[in-house]
Amino acid sequence: MARRRYVARGVPGGYRVWDNRGRRWWGDLYELCPDELVEALNGEADPAKLTALMKRYRALKR
């Protein structure tokens, strides 16, 4: 299996998405693990789908 570019990592207060290639955090801090968002980032990069998932996970932390 190929090494994934984006992975969700647990941090104090929730989860963050780590970019292995860029070696930096991507996106916001999420309270729930953003599994679908990580799958979409590692799969085909559909901007509409990514935007919808980011909005959904942001709304869950309010």
Overview of this protein structure:
The chain has 62 residues and is an alpha+beta fold. The chain has a three-stranded antiparallel β-sheet, with helices on one face. The chain has two helices and three strands, in the order E-E-E-H-H. The chain is 35% helix and 31% strand.
How are the secondary structure elements laid out?
Elements: E1 6-11, E2 14-19, E3 24-30, H1 35-42, H2 47-60
Antiparallel strand pairs: 1-2, 2-3
Helix pairs in contact: 1-2
Overall number of strands: 3
- Beta percentage is 25-35%
> Would you tell me the overall average pLDDT?
90
Low-confidence stretches: none
Distance between the termini: 36 Å
Strand numbers in spatial order across the main sheet:
1-2-3
Number of helices: 2
Order of helices and strands: EEEHH
Helix-strand category: alpha+beta
Sheet with most strands: 3 strands, antiparallel
Rg computed from alpha carbons, rounded to a whole number of angstroms: 11 Å
Share of helix among residues? 25-40%
Shape: globular
State the main characteristics:
single chain, alpha+beta
In short:
The chain has 62 residues and is α+β, with helices and mostly antiparallel strands. The chain is built from two helices and three strands.
